[in-house]
Amino acid sequence: MTYARKSEFKKVSFIRRVLSKTGIILAKSFPYYKIRRYGLKICGFKLGKDVYIAEDLIVTHNISEKSCHLRIGDRVAIGPRVTILLASDANWSKLMEKIPYIKGTVELCNDCWIGAGVIIMPNVKIGESSIVGAGSVVIKDVPPFTIVAGVPAKELRKIV
User: Fewer CB in 10 Å around end: N or C, the chain?
Assistant: First the structure.
């Protein structure tokens, strides 16, 4: 790679990082929910139609990691103070030698409802028309038309 191409790559990488950080800030705290949606789109995440995102959404991901994805379907409602983890590690701790870096995709399917204060771990899919109760920690996939709650989230009942 020539010096000019390396320099161009660094500029693109820097701009991408700035856009991603800006998008995360907008998604977290902008007073108007449509701008919060736009913030996630700036980050390269996929959003469907009529998605509602309440304030204080936290999305953790490694900007340089291309395997971290967030997909949000149509008519999804995300309550306040929800945390979505696309990547998680111990940073500079010596634990990194023993515990692997966790990264992946989170998918919120059409018409699901995520309650206030929910934490969603990497590599989780919330099925269509499912409900995650407030304060839950979702560590595994939620089937469609299911209500889950708790720490860790467990099935309470099916929606019929």
Answer: C
The one-letter amino acid at 9: F
Residues of the chain with pLDDT under 50: 4-5, 8-9
- Would you kindly state where each structural domain of the chain is located, as residue ranges? 44-158
User: What is the homologous superfamily of the domain 44-158 according to CATH?
Assistant: Hexapeptide repeat proteins (2.160.10.10)
The number of beta carbons lying within 10 Å of the beta carbon of residue 74 is 13
Q: What is the per-residue pLDDT across 12-25, written as a single tens digit (0 to 9) for each?
A: 577 777 877 787 87
Are β-strands 87-88 and 102-103 bridged in parallel, bridged antiparallel, or unpaired? antiparallel
CA distance 130 to 120: 14
What stretch of H or E contains 77?
A: strand 77-78
Sequence letter at residue 104: G
Q: What is the bridge-based pairing of β-strands 146-149 and 154-158?
A: antiparallel
Give the pLDDT confidence of 58-86 residue by residue, as tens digits. 998 776 566 689 999 999 999 999 999 99
